[in-house]
Amino acid sequence: MEVIYEDNHVIAVNKTNSEIVQGDKTGDVPLSETVQQWLKAKYSKPGNVFIGVVHRLDRPVSGAVLFAKTSKALPRLCEMFREGQVKKTYWAIVKNPPPQDTGELVHYLVRNEKQNKSYAHDREVPNSKKAVLDYRLIARSDNYYLLEIDLKTGRHHQIRCQLAKMGCPIKGDLKYGFAHSNPDGGISLHSRRTQFVHPVSKENIDIVAPTPQDKLWAALCQDSCIENTRSASCHFSSERLPDDPS
After folding, report:
1. Which of 22, 121, 157, 202 has its CA 20 to 30 A from that of 128?
2. What are phi and psi of 73, to 5 degrees?
């Protein structure tokens, strides 16, 4: 587990594309429990450790995931996510070039719960929700393109669905039209950057999650002269971490 930010009230982890954030029917150990055990060991706490889930990433997606370490931070972070006060930037590797190097995508998404899939429409249809994102081409190789995604809304499978609708399905994403899966079973979508005002200290927090250690990711990052160190770029809280984080 790679911790990329921690203070008294918040912890951020760089999720791999095989981990689940919360427990599900698979019975696999969720990331929330792994973080709990990590904190318990770090602070030598004999009892339970508080951890609060404030948002999720799809299982095949990698990148930054925030958790609340205190009951004070949890409802505030949850409200911030609901109100769109947390800015999240994603990177996606796609096979086909976008029609323009930059653009805004506006669609109306309908979620099919049985298929666990969303469908994009150009116009509003019954039971649809408006989905908006901005994209920017930031790197290319001989066969792939790296897009930076700025989410304006947060809908089910929004990036996956909208990029596929544009003709640019994400590498490895069979559900949304890519030809074949990735060897590791994930998809090439990464939650790269998370920016927000700290729910307690009110400081500006800027967390950057290093991309997966993969030859294609490395090549695209190098091609675009993007710094991709294994350490996160953050503005840390000045508060000292207590012995008892809860």
Report:
1. 22
2. -80, -30
pLDDT tens-digit series, residues 127-182:
999 999 999 999 999 899 999 999 999 899 999 999 999 999 999 999 999 999 99
Amino acid at 164: A
Catalytic residue among 24, 58, 101, 142: 58
What backbone torsions phi and psi does residue 162 show, to the nearest 5 degrees? -70, -40
| Residue located via tokens 């587990």 | 1
Summary mean pLDDT of the chain: 88
Residue 225 has pLDDT above 90, yes or no: no
Please, are residues 154 and 26 in contact by the beta-carbon 8 Å criterion?
no
Helix (H) or strand (E) holding 17: none
Q: Would you say residue 192 has pLDDT above 70?
A: yes
Q: Which has the closest alpha carbon to 151: 173, 135, 171?
A: 135
Q: How far is CA 53 from the centre of its chain?
A: 14
- In three-state secondary structure terms, 39 is helix
Q: What is the DSSP letter of 222?
A: H
φ/ψ of residue 88, rounded to 5: -120, 130
Q: Is 134 a catalytic site residue? A: no
Bridge-based pairing of strands 189-197 and 87-94 is antiparallel
Q: Which amino acid is at 201?
A: S
What's the whole-model pTM score?
0.88
Please check whether residue 163 is in contact with residue 157, taking contact to mean a CB–CB distance below 8 angstroms: no
